[in-house]
Amino acid sequence: MRLKNKNAIVTGAAKGMGAAITLTLAREGADLVLTARDTAALDEVAAQVRALGRRAEVVAADVTDEAQVAAMAERAKAFFEGRIDILVNVAGVTGPIETPAWEIAAEDFSHVIDSNIKGTFLPIKHVIPTMIARRSGKIVNIGGTSGTRGYKYRAAYSSSKWGVRGLTRTVALDAGEYGVNVNVVMPGIVETPRMDKLCEEKARTRGWTKERVYQEYVDEMALESVTTPQDVADAVLFLASDEARNITGQELTVDGGWDV
Fold first, then answer.
1. Is 153 a catalytic residue?
2. pLDDT digits over 227-241, tens only?
3. Annotated catalytic residue: which of 157, 178, 214, 217?
4. Model-level pTM?
5. Cys staple from 151: which of 68, 84, 107, 146, with CB 3.0 to 4.6 Å?
6. Which of 91, 69, 70 is nearest to 12 (CA)?
């Protein structure tokens, strides 16, 4: 078990990638604090964690609300008796789809930036002091390959994922002297309900079928294989494990060769 006796927090743990990451960490020996706004879905994932023989605590929190994030971090610290080894920031939003920059409402743009950048920053801010005190910790953020290149008609989302890269690299520099590793996993399109929504919206706007949009994505990938939540979870597991002890400030791309 690569994470035996480790304590981990996963934000956005209720569905899709978050649930896959949570269960992967649990199978490898970690106890978990799961946080998201949807506690009903969190309870289901927590039950699966406990069925694997690991401890799980559910904490409702909006990652854009500093008071809620601070309270979540304190509850996690108490649940783990003062030791937090791993933080995985998954929570985020998709934002406007198939919309040129000049048609995006300012409030929609701000919502995406707040959710994806501030929502990654706040858990780091409130969890990392516990790691610094112990001079040990692993932080894994979820970015996206839309943050490594331009992404037509997705200005808000692409901007936010570029921001997560910058945040990751800077915090890695800030925290390196304290033995804290900070990295980011960069998925491309992932086989989740969000991908279905994306394909449906593109199909509606273009007058295409959903299947045609899906195939367009596949054709752009070197491996012609869409990423699964488990593919992302395996990358997170590596960066959260001792095998990545000397890796920090780095981006691990998992996208089937979309951004090549």
1. no
2. 999 999 999 999 999
3. 157
4. 0.96
5. 146
6. 91
